[in-house]
Design a protein that fits this description.
The protein has 302 residues and is of the alpha+beta class. Helix 1 runs antiparallel to helix 5 and helix 3 runs antiparallel to helix 6.
């Protein structure tokens, strides 16, 4: 799997990417009209304002805020979009800022850009360093920041979709999301779709972020299905082996190959669960029913 432009790979790259996705969120919200803050989004149950309050809450928490949300004092009830304990925690966080005006929320977000960036410029920070995570947990720096890049960027896209301001589709947030999706393709196809042995599935992002991932489903010696990842790029020999053979190439017995291609935007909205497969623009070469099943299964968030 190769993604271009590539997502960050070292501490300085991750820190700068983190700063940029936060600033991009600030920029898209700067100048929104009052009514736009209350627009519903494709994220179930949340308005534009809720997305900003959520990001502010999480970043404030990660900064080690001296004023954490007191969960027992915020009643969430049983809204349909809150499905688990993490959902309750997130809902409590955004509701804790219900009294703030949009201007105050945006001001807090701006200040958090500087606070979080300063936190991550610690001279001894490494990719494997343990850092504060959500809900009294800890995580590796690299894991936390990858998740934050994906989360913040996805919420920015939710806001852009709601207010009709497309953009930010070629930067580090988009690259990190695309890499995460393509990395998940082999296990999603194997576990959630479970096609017949010999099936090859390829998923392509056609741009602005480009990349592709593929999997060939086989069986092991015990007869259990296994996934062989394609396009690993480890060596020239492996790259040659990675190219799937289609029925038209060699006739009977060849692996049936289904390729699913779509834009970065379409891939992101589908895999974030924001757009159903039936409303997603994509191109299929091969088995269209299998392609639909793959896209239905390739949902990585709530």
């Amino acid at each position: 799997m190769v993604v271009h432009p590539a997502p960050p790979a070292d501490v300085p790259g991750f820190v700068e990417a983190y700063r940029q996705v936060l600033l991009s969120l600030v920029n898209v919200c700067d100048g929104l009209r009052e009514a736009e803050w209350e627009l519903p989004t494709d994220c179930p149950g949340w308005s534009v304002r809720d997305h900003v309050a959520h990001v502010v809450h999480v970043e404030d928490y990660l900064s080690g805020s001296a004023q954490p949300v007191v969960e027992e004092t915020i009643e969430v009830g049983t809204p349909e979009h809150v499905r688990n304990d993490l959902g309750v925690w997130m809902e409590q966080g955004l509701r804790s800022r219900a009294a703030l005006s949009p201007e105050q929320l945006l001001a807090e977000l701006r200040s958090l850009v500087e606070i979080r960036t300063a936190d991550l410029y610690a001279p001894d920070l490494e990719l494997e360093s343990t850092v504060r995570s959500i809900r009294d947990q800890e995580a590796r720096f690299v894991d936390l920041v990858r998740l934050r890049l994906c989360d913040i960027w996805t919420h920015e896209q939710d806001i852009r979709e709601a207010v009709g301001r497309p953009g930010s589709l070629g930067g580090d947030g988009a690259a990190q999301w695309t890499a995460m999706v393509l990395d998940a393709v082999p296990r999603v196809v194997l576990r959630r779709v479970a096609p017949e042995p010999g099936t090859v599935v390829i998923v392509e992002s056609t741009g602005p972020v480009t990349g592709r991932a593929g999997v060939r489903v086989d069986v092991d010696e015990a007869g259990e299905p296994v996934a062989h990842e394609l396009f690993t790029g480890h060596s020239a020999a492996e790259e040659e082996d990675d190219v799937p053979v289609t029925e038209s190439d060699s006739g009977v017995g060849s692996s049936p190959t289904t390729t699913i291609a779509m834009s970065t935007h379409a891939l992101a909205r589908r895999t974030a669960g924001r757009t159903p497969t039936g409303q997603t623009a994509y191109h299929v070469s091969g088995d269209e029913e299998l392609a639909r099943r793959v896209l239905d299964a390739l949902t990585l968030t709530r």
